[in-house]
Amino acid sequence: MTLTRNLLRLSAAGAALTLAGCITLLPDAKPAQLYRFTPETAPLAASTPTEGRIPMIRGGGSFHPAAAGDRILTADGAEAAYLANARWTQSASVLFDQALVAAFASSRGPARLITPGELGRPAFGLRVDVSRFEADYDQGPRAAPEVRIDLHVVVTRLRDQKVVREESLSFTRRADENRGGAIAEAFQEATREALAAIIRTADEGVATSVAPVGG
Length: 215
Fold this sequence. Notes:
The protein is α/β, with parallel strands linked by helices. The protein has a single domain, classed as Rossmann fold, CATH 3.40.50. It has three helices and ten strands. Strands 1, 2, 3, 4, 5, 6, 7, 8, 9 and 10 form a ten-stranded mixed β-sheet that branches. The chain is elongated. Residues 72-198 form the ABC-type transport auxiliary lipoprotein component domain. InterPro entries: ABC_trans_aux. This is ABC transporter.
């Protein structure tokens, strides 16, 4: 079924604040179809050993306010809207954070992400700011949209608060068709690429910072 974008339309200037605060009450509306964008990851039991890896903890970070909830944000030129009758199973920001934790748990790199309360004294801080997380109808409202994710990653050495790695990254993936499932799959693929890049940036920051000096 071709999706429509008829919940909200507004100018780009007020998109974030207006979209974040609106509640739609439609008693006769069809039930929303639920989707996930979290990539498949290896079970935590099969995660790589933690010995020898450098502990890192999330510090700060943000997620675009208009995209952070459970509604699927789209863009069409200067206008923004949410997909009708389609939602994420949880808030997009929560799903993204869960996917990041799972991706680090399955990583073989030197950086190990620890969660609050987990044993281990972190040596590095990781900040991830997601400034864009949307499906862009750049080829018209009936064509398959392109998912776009923009984020900024900062790795900080905690003992002296020195930034050891910083990257601004962008990822795109076009949906196969203008359908909820296809759009969710495009979000999943773009998110998988984003997570891999975040981990790569973290690993490079840790490896560079702890590398021995001299020969």
